[in-house]
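Predict the holo structure. Ligand: heme C.
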Amino acid sequence: MRRIFIVIIAATVFAGSCAGSPPEVPVGADGTADAVLVVGREVFGNSCKRCHGASGGGGSGPRLHGDDFDDEFPDVEALVDVIRSGRNQMPSFSSSLTEEQLDAVARYIREVL
Ligand code: HEC
């Protein structure tokens, strides 16, 4: 009995931490998730996750949250610029993402991750 319990706990923790999908957009006061952030999550999952980790915790690319990150990118525009132009090993997304998608993924990083 105890063993089954441990297996269930392990499976739950595993599913939560390693499922590999970016965190859901929280539902707002009106009961719906911000549509722009939902687009941002989709873009993140398709284009960024493989290097920056499902929750932006880092991988081959750096972590996308924390104090240093907030200092480096105090506003959304600075963030959009680096995503649009790329930097060193970070590819440019100017031709593969629209301006709406760039804004959406930048907002998702700042507001959800
Ligand atoms: C092929 C791997 C790869 C992909 C895909 C990728 N990145 Fe990056 N990213 C990197 C690397 C490596 C860096 C560090 C660049 C440098 O040397 O400054 C970086 C840097 C960044 C930075 C600056 C971080 C900082 O602390 O200075 C941001 C913001 C960023 N990436 C966002 C994104 C977003 C958003 C996407 C998806 C649209 C994305 N990246 C996709 C590899 C990647």
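The chain has one domain: 23-111. Confidence is low (pLDDT under 50) at residues 12-19.
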